[in-house]
Design brief:
The protein is of the alpha/beta class and 354 residues long. It has a single domain, classed as Alpha/Beta hydrolase fold, catalytic domain (Rossmann fold, 3-Layer(aba) Sandwich). 39% of the residues lie in helices and 18% in strands.
């Protein structure tokens, strides 16, 4: 064999070495990094959907208002009512003001003025990240200040209604501002820490540690805000002398019922705690007649001081269903009621505590 033929012979691959293994590792690491970054981005800036749930879109009949907040401004939608009472509605995570229309539809029929806003974390332009209460509390505080200054609403008795993140914000806002007369909170979380722990275990099926701790660190790094900063249960201790109506879903797939029960105890175990059947924030959809009747009765006692019943279809539906009234609040320092709804219907179950 010639020298030239020997040079042309292909070299054997060294034993144990696999061609392209380094590329596979780099590709896998890149894919994981993209997944993590994408997941964090979606958590901070989730897609926002209208989610009317069959309720009419009141954008066309509401008055668009501008609510100043520092050098910025929030967008608000005011639906004037016939009563001297205003209910401000705060939406939850990945929703906007249109989510409020399911509640505004029956509140406005009963004569209440309703103000709905977009948190800056849900608007289209100049959007802020979701912070589990930091930016959202600033937005809620600015909304309350606007309502107290505006000639159309400044003399109204004031109530709040919120769901999920908006429910927690409503409770803390009321605790900080005694001019808020009453609060309805649907599926709130008791603290940012507890919310992230439940989210890890219930929603993501991951251990709460270190998932929640890592999530907190990434949230602080990317937003400059501490997602564990909102302590709703601690704030609720300031609400022992005011009407609070708490609602939570027995099958909630985000927050455990223990969170709302902790808030109820912190607020003095007075008022009403309704454990309704269904998933997170589905009580209105699953038990619409009962939901509207309970909320209207609560606001009638708290904002108007006189008995009141839903009008139109809600009252007819309650009569057909044969549902019973929820236990009434028996004084600021007195005991309240905890009722459970059957998982598949609107009827109330047993009273668990008085």
């Amino acid at each position: 064999m010639s020298h030239d033929q020997d040079q042309e012979r292909p070299r054997a691959t060294p034993r144990g070495r696999r061609p392209g293994l380094g590329n596979v590792v780099v590709l896998a690491a890149s894919a994981l990094a993209l997944f993590v970054v994408g997941s964090i981005w979606l958590a901070l800036f989730p897609p926002v959907i209208a989610d009317l749930g069959g309720a009419p879109d009141l954008d066309a009949v509401a008055t668009r208002v501008r609510i100043p907040i520092g050098d910025d401004a929030l967008s608000g939608w005011l639906v004037p009512g016939s009563r001297p009472a205003l209910v401000i509605v705060f939406h939850g995570y990945a929703r906007d003001h249109r989510r409020a229309w399911r509640y505004a539809s029956f509140l406005h029929r009963a004569g209440y003025s309703v103000l709905a806003v977009d948190f800056r974390s849900s608007r289209e332009r100049g959007r802020k990240p979701t912070t589990l209460g930091v930016y959202e509390m600033q937005d809620a505080t600015a909304t309350l200040a606007w309502a107290r200054r505006n000639p159309r609403t400044r003399d109204d008795t004031l109530g709040l209604l919120g769901e999920s993140l908006g429910a927690s914000v409503a409770l803390v806002l009321a605790a900080r501002h005694p001019e808020v007369a009453a609060v309805v909170a649907d599926c709130p979380f008791a603290s940012g820490e507890w919310a992230m722990e439940d989210g890890a275990m219930i929603k993501l099926h991951l251990p709460k540690w270190p998932t929640a701790v890592l999530g907190r660190g990434l949230g602080r790094l990317l937003t400059g805000a501490d997602p564990w900063g909102l302590d709703v249960a601690a704030a609720a201790e300031s609400l022992q002398d005011r009407p609070v109506f708490l609602i939570h879903a027995q099958g909630d797939d985000r927050f455990s019922t223990e969170q709302t029960e902790a808030i109820w105890r912190a607020a003095g175990s007075h008022g009403e705690l309704w454990l309704a059947g269904g998933d997170h924030n589905q009580a209105w959809q699953r038990h619409r007649t009962e939901y509207e009747r309970r909320v209207l009765a609560f606001f009638a006692r708290s904002l108007n001081g006189s008995p009141h019943h839903p009008v139109g279809e809600s009252v007819a539906g309650a009569a057909r269903d044969g549902t019973k009234p929820a236990g009434s609040r028996r004084g600021a320092a007195g005991a309240g009621t905890v009722t459970q709804g059957h998982a598949g219907g609107a009827a109330m179950g047993k009273v668990r505590g008085q």
